[in-house]
TrEMBL record:
The keyword Signal applies. Keywords: Signal. This is Tetratricopeptide repeat-containing protein. The keyword Signal applies. It comes from the Bacteria.
Amino acid sequence: MKKSLFTLALAFAFVFSAFANDPAYESAMKKQIQAMKTIQNPEQSQAVVNGFLRIAEVKNTEWLPIYYAAYLQTIAAFRFEVNKDQYFDQAMELINKADKVAPNNSEITALKGFIIMGKLSVDPMSRGQEMSPLAMQTFGKSIALDKENPRATTLMAQMELGMAQFFGSGVEKACGLARVGLELFAKEEAKINEDYLLPTWGKREAEQVLSACK
Protein backbone atom coordinates (compact mmCIF):
# COMPACT_ATOMS: atom_id res chain seq x y z
CA MET A 1 0.00 0.00 0.00
CA LYS A 2 2.80 2.39 0.95
CA LYS A 3 4.58 1.53 -2.31
CA SER A 4 1.42 2.30 -4.32
CA LEU A 5 0.99 5.66 -2.58
CA PHE A 6 4.64 6.49 -3.20
CA THR A 7 4.29 5.62 -6.89
CA LEU A 8 1.15 7.73 -7.16
CA ALA A 9 2.89 10.66 -5.49
CA LEU A 10 5.77 10.40 -7.96
CA ALA A 11 3.32 10.34 -10.85
CA PHE A 12 1.62 13.50 -9.61
CA ALA A 13 4.99 15.16 -9.12
CA PHE A 14 6.00 14.27 -12.68
CA VAL A 15 2.77 15.63 -14.16
CA PHE A 16 3.06 18.84 -12.16
CA SER A 17 6.66 19.27 -13.26
CA ALA A 18 5.76 18.73 -16.90
CA PHE A 19 3.04 21.38 -16.79
CA ALA A 20 5.12 23.79 -14.74
CA ASN A 21 7.94 23.67 -17.30
CA ASP A 22 6.23 23.56 -20.70
CA PRO A 23 8.79 24.60 -23.35
CA ALA A 24 6.16 24.76 -26.12
CA TYR A 25 3.96 27.11 -24.05
CA GLU A 26 6.89 29.30 -23.05
CA SER A 27 8.15 29.48 -26.64
CA ALA A 28 4.72 30.40 -27.99
CA MET A 29 4.26 33.08 -25.34
CA LYS A 30 7.68 34.61 -26.01
CA LYS A 31 6.89 34.74 -29.73
CA GLN A 32 3.59 36.55 -29.14
CA ILE A 33 5.09 38.94 -26.56
CA GLN A 34 7.77 39.83 -29.10
CA ALA A 35 5.10 40.31 -31.78
CA MET A 36 3.34 42.82 -29.51
CA LYS A 37 6.26 45.20 -30.02
CA THR A 38 5.78 45.34 -33.80
CA ILE A 39 2.06 46.23 -33.91
CA GLN A 40 1.32 49.22 -36.15
CA ASN A 41 -2.39 48.93 -36.94
CA PRO A 42 -5.61 47.28 -35.71
CA GLU A 43 -5.23 44.32 -38.07
CA GLN A 44 -1.79 43.46 -36.72
CA SER A 45 -3.08 43.87 -33.18
CA GLN A 46 -5.95 41.46 -33.84
CA ALA A 47 -3.55 38.92 -35.32
CA VAL A 48 -1.46 38.95 -32.13
CA VAL A 49 -4.63 38.80 -30.00
CA ASN A 50 -5.72 35.73 -31.95
CA GLY A 51 -2.32 34.16 -31.32
CA PHE A 52 -2.69 34.60 -27.58
CA LEU A 53 -6.23 33.22 -27.69
CA ARG A 54 -5.00 30.08 -29.50
CA ILE A 55 -2.48 29.57 -26.71
CA ALA A 56 -5.25 30.09 -24.14
CA GLU A 57 -7.34 27.36 -25.77
CA VAL A 58 -4.50 24.87 -25.37
CA LYS A 59 -3.39 26.06 -21.91
CA ASN A 60 -6.74 26.87 -20.34
CA THR A 61 -5.27 26.85 -16.83
CA GLU A 62 -2.93 29.76 -17.63
CA TRP A 63 -4.12 33.35 -17.14
CA LEU A 64 -1.38 35.16 -19.03
CA PRO A 65 -2.50 34.45 -22.64
CA ILE A 66 -6.01 35.78 -21.97
CA TYR A 67 -4.55 38.70 -20.01
CA TYR A 68 -2.35 39.76 -22.93
CA ALA A 69 -5.26 39.44 -25.36
CA ALA A 70 -7.31 41.75 -23.12
CA TYR A 71 -4.38 44.16 -22.77
CA LEU A 72 -3.93 44.41 -26.55
CA GLN A 73 -7.63 45.09 -27.10
CA THR A 74 -7.40 47.85 -24.51
CA ILE A 75 -4.32 49.43 -26.05
CA ALA A 76 -5.84 49.20 -29.55
CA ALA A 77 -8.88 51.12 -28.32
CA PHE A 78 -6.66 53.91 -27.01
CA ARG A 79 -4.25 53.88 -29.94
CA PHE A 80 -6.27 53.36 -33.13
CA GLU A 81 -9.36 54.73 -34.84
CA VAL A 82 -11.70 51.88 -33.93
CA ASN A 83 -15.04 51.42 -32.19
CA LYS A 84 -13.61 52.15 -28.76
CA ASP A 85 -16.59 50.96 -26.72
CA GLN A 86 -16.63 47.69 -28.63
CA TYR A 87 -12.91 47.12 -28.06
CA PHE A 88 -13.12 47.98 -24.37
CA ASP A 89 -16.12 45.66 -23.98
CA GLN A 90 -14.21 42.84 -25.67
CA ALA A 91 -11.25 43.52 -23.39
CA MET A 92 -13.49 43.37 -20.33
CA GLU A 93 -14.98 40.08 -21.46
CA LEU A 94 -11.50 38.62 -21.84
CA ILE A 95 -10.15 39.92 -18.53
CA ASN A 96 -13.19 38.51 -16.74
CA LYS A 97 -12.26 35.11 -18.19
CA ALA A 98 -8.71 35.56 -16.92
CA ASP A 99 -10.15 36.48 -13.51
CA LYS A 100 -11.94 33.13 -13.37
CA VAL A 101 -8.68 31.31 -14.12
CA ALA A 102 -6.72 33.28 -11.49
CA PRO A 103 -9.00 35.05 -8.97
CA ASN A 104 -7.62 37.87 -6.80
CA ASN A 105 -4.68 38.49 -9.11
CA SER A 106 -3.25 42.00 -8.86
CA GLU A 107 -2.26 42.21 -12.54
CA ILE A 108 -5.69 41.10 -13.74
CA THR A 109 -7.40 43.51 -11.36
CA ALA A 110 -5.20 46.42 -12.47
CA LEU A 111 -5.98 45.75 -16.12
CA LYS A 112 -9.68 45.55 -15.30
CA GLY A 113 -9.40 49.04 -13.78
CA PHE A 114 -7.53 50.24 -16.89
CA ILE A 115 -10.39 49.00 -19.08
CA ILE A 116 -12.91 50.82 -16.88
CA MET A 117 -10.79 53.95 -17.21
CA GLY A 118 -10.86 53.49 -20.99
CA LYS A 119 -14.65 53.20 -21.02
CA LEU A 120 -14.79 56.34 -18.91
CA SER A 121 -12.56 58.24 -21.36
CA VAL A 122 -15.01 57.61 -24.22
CA ASP A 123 -17.68 59.76 -22.54
CA PRO A 124 -16.41 61.25 -19.27
CA MET A 125 -19.31 63.65 -18.80
CA SER A 126 -22.02 60.99 -18.68
CA ARG A 127 -19.92 58.12 -17.29
CA GLY A 128 -17.75 59.89 -14.75
CA GLN A 129 -20.08 59.70 -11.78
CA GLU A 130 -20.42 55.92 -12.06
CA MET A 131 -17.07 54.85 -13.49
CA SER A 132 -14.59 57.13 -11.72
CA PRO A 133 -15.25 55.62 -8.26
CA LEU A 134 -15.32 52.12 -9.79
CA ALA A 135 -11.93 52.61 -11.44
CA MET A 136 -10.42 54.01 -8.22
CA GLN A 137 -11.86 51.13 -6.21
CA THR A 138 -10.47 48.58 -8.68
CA PHE A 139 -6.98 50.11 -8.64
CA GLY A 140 -7.12 50.22 -4.84
CA LYS A 141 -7.95 46.51 -4.77
CA SER A 142 -5.07 45.76 -7.15
CA ILE A 143 -2.62 47.62 -4.90
CA ALA A 144 -3.96 45.82 -1.83
CA LEU A 145 -3.43 42.47 -3.57
CA ASP A 146 0.19 43.33 -4.40
CA LYS A 147 1.82 46.54 -3.19
CA GLU A 148 4.86 45.72 -5.35
CA ASN A 149 2.86 45.82 -8.60
CA PRO A 150 4.07 48.96 -10.42
CA ARG A 151 1.15 48.93 -12.89
CA ALA A 152 -1.42 49.13 -10.12
CA THR A 153 0.22 52.17 -8.55
CA THR A 154 0.90 53.83 -11.92
CA LEU A 155 -2.68 53.43 -13.12
CA MET A 156 -3.92 54.87 -9.84
CA ALA A 157 -1.53 57.80 -10.45
CA GLN A 158 -3.01 58.30 -13.94
CA MET A 159 -6.52 58.28 -12.53
CA GLU A 160 -5.60 60.74 -9.78
CA LEU A 161 -3.96 63.06 -12.32
CA GLY A 162 -6.97 62.96 -14.61
CA MET A 163 -9.32 63.78 -11.75
CA ALA A 164 -7.05 66.59 -10.52
CA GLN A 165 -6.95 68.14 -13.99
CA PHE A 166 -10.71 67.73 -14.44
CA PHE A 167 -11.56 69.37 -11.12
CA GLY A 168 -8.67 71.86 -11.19
CA SER A 169 -7.16 70.54 -7.95
CA GLY A 170 -3.58 69.78 -6.93
CA VAL A 171 -1.58 66.97 -8.53
CA GLU A 172 0.52 66.12 -5.46
CA LYS A 173 -1.13 62.76 -4.83
CA ALA A 174 -0.77 61.69 -8.47
CA CYS A 175 2.90 62.74 -8.48
CA GLY A 176 3.63 60.81 -5.29
CA LEU A 177 2.06 57.67 -6.71
CA ALA A 178 3.99 58.06 -9.97
CA ARG A 179 7.27 58.30 -8.07
CA VAL A 180 6.41 55.12 -6.14
CA GLY A 181 5.47 53.47 -9.42
CA LEU A 182 8.86 54.27 -10.95
CA GLU A 183 10.62 52.89 -7.88
CA LEU A 184 8.63 49.67 -8.26
CA PHE A 185 9.48 49.48 -11.97
CA ALA A 186 13.18 49.70 -11.06
CA LYS A 187 12.74 46.72 -8.72
CA GLU A 188 10.85 44.81 -11.38
CA GLU A 189 13.48 45.46 -14.05
CA ALA A 190 16.05 43.71 -11.87
CA LYS A 191 14.01 40.48 -12.19
CA ILE A 192 13.44 40.57 -15.95
CA ASN A 193 15.35 38.18 -18.19
CA GLU A 194 14.76 36.54 -21.58
CA ASP A 195 12.44 33.95 -20.00
CA TYR A 196 10.25 36.51 -18.20
CA LEU A 197 6.62 36.19 -19.29
CA LEU A 198 4.84 38.39 -16.74
CA PRO A 199 3.65 41.91 -17.65
CA THR A 200 6.29 44.65 -17.72
CA TRP A 201 4.39 47.55 -19.34
CA GLY A 202 3.55 50.86 -17.69
CA LYS A 203 6.84 52.66 -17.03
CA ARG A 204 6.20 55.18 -19.81
CA GLU A 205 2.81 55.99 -18.28
CA ALA A 206 4.43 56.62 -14.89
CA GLU A 207 6.96 58.95 -16.53
CA GLN A 208 4.15 60.81 -18.31
CA VAL A 209 2.34 61.42 -15.04
CA LEU A 210 5.56 62.60 -13.42
CA SER A 211 6.18 65.03 -16.29
CA ALA A 212 3.03 66.88 -15.24
CA CYS A 213 4.60 67.48 -11.82
CA LYS A 214 7.37 69.77 -13.05
